[in-house]
Amino acid sequence: MYPEKTVDALVVGAGMAGLTSAAYLSKYGYQVLLCEKRPVVGGLVGTFFHQGYGFDSGIRAFENSGIILPMLRELGIPIDYEKSVVTIGIEDARIRYDREEGLYAYQAMLGEKFPENAAEIARIIHEIEKVIGYMQVIYGIDNPLFVDYKNNRQYVFKTLLPWLLKYTVNIRKAGRLTLPVNTYLSSITSNRSLIDVITQHFFKDTPTFFALSYFGLYLDYFYPKGGTGALAEKMAAYIRDHGGEICTECPITRIDPDKKVVRAQDGRSFRYRQLIWASDMRMLYAQLDLSGFEEDQRRSKIETQKQATMEGRGSDSILSLYLGVGLNKSVFEKHFSAHGFYTPRKIGLSLSMKEGWENAVSRCETTKEKKSVLESWISDYLQATTYELSLPVLSDSSMAPEGKTGLIVSTLMDYGLVKTVSEQGWYDEFKKLVERQIVQILDQTCFPGIRQHIECATCSTPLSLESITGNTEGAITGWSFASAKMPAVNKFTQIAHAIDTPIPDVCQAGQWTFSPSGLPVSILTGKVAADAVNAQLRKRSR
Fold first, then answer.
1. In the chain, N or C terminus with fewer CB closer than 10 Å?
2. pLDDT, tens digit, 9 for 90 and up, residues 378-393
3. Sheet harboring 93-97: ordered strands across?
4. DSSP 91
């Protein structure tokens, strides 16, 4: 039997939201315990080495968004990084998307591939320019949450207040662009291939503003020395240095909100004054023990939220192929930068895929027939999809053995498809099929001759992500835009309420509290949750 441990603040989930919450609560001087089910912290912000090659297991680069770098400055955490220029490619064409000419080079490339749509492309570029203009205002200053402005009147009157006025106007304009981006662009052009080339690497039904804003965010990317996992490692070190405790391999299996006690899988129990849940929201509600809860109105709210959470759909997941290649990085620099997006066929998915995989297999009567149909469908999909490419060694020479290059190739992949493959018993074959197909595509298109120089390969699927992170359906950024109703705050103007739960003394933070919610929003909600807990603890200690 373990003795029960009591802490001021318990944080569950050591992704970037949980690390941020724990870091700030440690800074504020509280007794903090951060519990993580995995042996390592970071969640989807991590780096691993395989046969000497360094690979980023989740996010490939960071966009600052006025949040990440100010947070590190406020905490006093140093990090070395390189600006990460994005390359965008379609078939044999490539452009480096830089601040000076990037958008117009992109317009020229689209015009080269779709000359009959030149006028429509110009209109689309104009829409992107408008969104970038909104973004420049919205992220025009360091996020005030990470700036000590209370004792700086000059900053308040000369910077913050003028920005708030502009922010209010521009966030309202951005808020009008809520249509799914494919629907919005179809009002400008009827060319499905053109729309696909621009949008098919975004999640299904991504709102127009979020999708088009990426053409501004591409200019904001940076890559930390040592890989993206360096950020998580530095945050964890900060927590420990400031008196916080991190307990890895400690999955939480039961939460008693009446007694304010959680129990871990190994039998340990922790009593808290305040709890921040920075892990999968479904797990939060699945593990609640309400047997001692007598307040009927509160119980009803919890049950309502639990039902909404259980019925919600996770966002899209991805498949990633990690390749160790026995070629010098200079070979790749001829074709690509350290990070980018590549579409091997301009025809796009809408015209390449006659039907979805579910319909394709619905007519099959035997497992063998289903396998054959799915193999064909997957092959067609991989030929037409858009890939995110990352070459960490181009930003940091320590990320590959001397004279060699690590390459990460990712694409959106339906969780249900991979789950079906696994249930049919050919999951390992599926991964080998994907590896062969993707390598062949790369060899024939953007990296000629790569196939004969591959030294190692490993594949991550939506099932891998679900297993590693605990995220429902291997989702990587939150709730699906295609959900009938998201069971969480999903408007940026309401971000302060993204941490709210109906459970007493429990906040939530991270990727499941806002959609979309990449790294900056995970950090932002982590900080909001920490400040809310700080306010509650101070109030009760008076």
1. C
2. 999 999 999 999 999 9
3. 93-97, 86-90, 339-343, 387-390, 405-413, 317-325, 454-460
4. T
Model pTM score: 0.95
Q: Token pair for residue 431?
A: 């991964």
Cα 480 from Cα 253, distance rounded (Å): 26
Q: What is the C-alpha to C-alpha distance for residues 51 and 457, in angstroms, rounded to an integer? A: 10
- pLDDT-based confidence at 467, cuts 50/70/90? confident
Which residue carries 């980018």 as its tokens? 340
- The stretches of 10-158 forming alpha helices (DSSP H) are 16-27, 68-75, 102-113, 118-138, 153-155
Domains of the chain plus CATH, in order, are 5-45+62-80+227-314+477-541 (3.50.50.60), 84-218 (no CATH), 316-472 (3.90.660)
Lowest-pLDDT choice from 7-11, 45-49, 356-360, 473-477:
473-477
CA-based max dimension of the chain: 73
Contact, 249 vs 38, CB < 8 A? yes
Where do we find the tokens 């000076």? 100
- Residue 227, Ramachandran bin (φ over 0: left; ψ between -120 and 50: alpha; else beta): left
d(Cα 63, Cα 277) in Å, to the nearest integer?
24
How many other CB atoms sit within 10 Å of the CB of residue 114? 18
Other CB atoms within 10 Å distance of the CB of residue 164: 13
Rounded CA Rg of the chain: 24
Q: Which two tokens stand for residue 171?
A: 């966030």
HSE-up (13 A, CA, CB side) for residue 152: 10
Tally: H helices and E strands in the chain:
20, 19
**What gap in Å lies between CA 463 and CA 467, rounded to an integer?**
6
Spatial neighbors of 427 by CB under 8 A, at least 6 apart, are 418, 421, 461, 463
Structure tokens at 483: 């959900």
Answer for the pair 413, 354: CB distance below 8 angstroms, yes or no: no
**For the ranges 28-32, 57-61, 271-275, 515-519, which has the lowest average pLDDT?**
515-519
Q: Measured in whole angstroms, how far is the alpha carbon of residue 69 from the centre of its chain?
A: 18
Task: Report DSSP state, residue 275.
Answer: E
Q: How far apart are CA 93 and CA 21, in angstroms?
A: 44
Distance CA 108, CA 249 (A): 51
